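User: Fold this; tokens only.

Assistant: Input:
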Amino acid sequence: MKIEDWLARFADGHLTDVASDGGRISLRLEAYTDYRLTPGEVSVVEVFELSADQGELEMAGPPVADHSLEEPWCREEDGLVTVEFVAPLRIRVTAPVFETKLLRTDRRPVLPKPSANACTVRLTDPLDPVRWQEALGPTVTWRIYSGEANTPADPDGWFLQRRDRLATSRTGVFCRTAGDRVTLDRHDADDDLWQAVRLLAAGTASRVWCGNCVFAPADWVTWLTTGALPPLERLRP
């Protein structure tokens, strides 16, 4: 198999380690054969070694193991082969010959990974911008991007931000509605405001999607306030 065809399997895979010992260079690569997202399910991962005994390594920085790779790049010129990864910084190896080896196949349970900066909440009542403004208090206001304080007639695409930060911040907590759901994204907002907005949304929530987890409202509040997650079966769709 040509090296470029072999490398193609690592699009959306991971480069987890790079080692160099004299002229020998070894890269540890992972590719999913069965990729799962739901907590408690099992992903199947093949772990490979790509190595060269007479190689030249150029590395802008070490790989980040959980960074998803774009399709690796490969070039052959003057009897040398160059492979390149963005992981997320550029890593390039040039050698006359590469060896590939399957090291093992892992079965990895999917862990819950709620997002710290984004969530989507299904509301039992439509988002009322006036009520949200009152609940968050006079120090917080709605605004458009880079805009002054204002109360939107339709909150789709508006931010919540502290009034004393309007002159120094363009954003805040971005709120986007679609039907009975509101998506919250933290941009330039302090910890207390981000927490207050999420807890406010939780007050009329029937379901919350966050990272790879789906929360019931009570479990969501518990995670927000204590960091404790419920059993895996309560985090699945």
